[in-house]
Amino acid sequence: MNPDERNNIERLTISVLSYLPTAVLYVHDLSGECGTSPNNQLVTYKEMRERFKDHLWLDVVSKCDLLQESPACILPDDEFARYKRCGPDGAIHVSIMSNQGVDELKARVHDLLLSQMARISSTPSG
């Protein structure tokens, strides 16, 4: 995505991630209800994942109860179809409506924060 196309919140987020020792909880909304297409989300995700590859990272697919069931036979090399169906590999699927994945998300965020605190404590300036 062209940096000029980003809104102020997106630019501010990138600045914060660039300068603070943060862990990243990246939320994907593939339901079609967030105003950004899954295709655009995948492009942005890949860019952010590459830019902040040294950060601790946790992917979450929100509104998973709204994702349409896709045919089971998606070609292995069809990255966009796989992403649109279930998000990145290892993502936690969460639905507030059905409470699916909420406990796992809480536990994983807790673990992520502990890991990040340990990372910060082990750096010379930490």
UniProtKB/TrEMBL annotation:
<dbReference type="InterPro" id="IPR027417">
    <property type="entry name" value="P-loop_NTPase"/>
</dbReference>
<protein>
    <recommendedName>
        <fullName>Nucleolar GTP-binding protein 1 Rossman-fold domain-containing protein</fullName>
    </recommendedName>
</protein>
<dbReference type="Pfam" id="PF06858">
    <property type="entry name" value="NOG1"/>
</dbReference>
<dbReference type="InterPro" id="IPR010674">
    <property type="entry name" value="NOG1_Rossman_fold_dom"/>
</dbReference>
<feature type="domain" description="Nucleolar GTP-binding protein 1 Rossman-fold">
    <location>
        <begin position="8"/>
        <end position="65"/>
    </location>
</feature>
<dbReference type="GO" id="GO:0005525">
    <property type="term" value="F:GTP binding"/>
</dbReference>
